[in-house]
Design brief:
By secondary structure, the protein is an alpha/beta fold. The chain is 47% helix and 17% strand.
């Protein structure tokens, strides 16, 4: 079995992140972006698993062999978005061109007062969503993130925007605590954003077709959506080069219903719909895909029987 994504160490380190932050905030974005080239080369040479995962993914989505330059372009896009997280959190949208699609539908859904789940994936930038929320400070945004996976980056981002810590629901806390925090936020009419493409270790997964081969997706987000009974929209913050981002909101469901008597089939249907939209945007912007591991083999040891699904009622159970 291939190495699980959670076991991979955090890239860089505290000093490297401090250095990038210092260069970025004191030297400006143009100077900081120059530093991305040696950083990209370093990661290409030193992080073999991520390099091989990038090559394998790009060949799958582009349908042909790819060059070292294309792999480095992929790594550079990730580095550029990571750098922009600093500016988006420290300065908001200033200096960026963020186009938004589906904003009217998002606002009309929020106007119902039931709260809203925003399902994303590890594509593009989630910080573009946080920057957009500054336009509507009256609508709270809570984000479900695993602080323990990237502690150095989390510390840096919270130093830039101290209010982030209060608005993050820590995914490492456990299923019951996460679900309760999400329910409380939705009761207050908040947007709750989470990424639904990666399964944590020991989390139940189900396979669905994705880029030509069945891939494992976690069931937890859909069980939570079912229990919260709030509208669900998809959200993708695509990086389009330079200072340009495109934030896309799509209606997904007024309510996710998973009947107990047909739970396995219902889960498969919801996950397949979600995977289909993720695949669509992978083709739209392939260099925005930031799952740098063998996505199709992330947990081949997990076998989910239909009768076992019923007992998995919480995120990460």
């Amino acid at each position: 079995m291939s190495e699980h994504w959670q076991s991979r160490p955090e890239g860089g380190g505290r000093f490297a992140l401090w250095l990038i932050r210092t260069v970025a905030l004191h030297g400006g974005r143009p100077l900081a972006r120059l530093v991305l080239y040696p950083i990209t080369l370093y990661f290409y040479c030193r992080r073999r698993p991520e390099r091989e995962a990038s090559r394998s993914f790009l060949e799958r989505v582009l349908g042909k062999p790819v060059s070292a330059w294309q792999v480095m372009k992929h790594l550079h896009a990730f580095a550029a978005i990571t750098l922009d997280r600093i500016f988006l959190l420290a300065r908001g949208e200033k200096g960026f061109d963020i186009a938004v699609e589906g904003l009217d539908e998002l606002e009309s859904t929020l106007a119902k007062g039931r709260g809203l789940l925003l399902m994303g994936s590890h594509q593009g930038s989630f910080e573009a969503l946080r920057a957009l929320s500054l336009r509507r400070p009256d609508i709270p945004l809570r984000v479900v993130l695993d602080k323990q996976k990237t502690p150095d980056m989390t510390e840096l981002l919270e130093a830039l925007a101290p209010d982030i810590g209060a608005n993050v629901i820590d995914a490492s806390l456990g299923g019951a605590s996460i679900t309760l925090a999400m329910a409380e936020a939705c009761d207050k009419g908040a947007m709750v954003a989470l990424l639904a493409d990666r399964g944590r270790e020991h989390e139940v997964l189900r396979r669905t077709p994705f880029l030509g081969e069945p891939a494992p997706f976690p069931i937890g987000p859909w069980l939570v959506a079912h229990s919260l009974r709030v509208p669900v929209m998809l959200c993708f913050g695509l990086y389009e080069g330079g200072n340009r981002y495109r934030l896309i909101f799509e209606h997904f469901a007024d309510r996710v219903d998973i009947p107990r008597q047909d739970r396995a089939n219902a889960l498969d249907a919801w996950i397949a719909r979600y995977a289909g939209r993720v695949e669509h945007y992978v083709h739209v912007a392939p260099y925005n895909w930031f799952n740098f591991y063998d996505f199709w083999q992330q947990d081949v040891a997990t076998a989910v029987r239909p009768d076992a699904v019923a007992v998995r009622e919480r995120v990460g159970a």
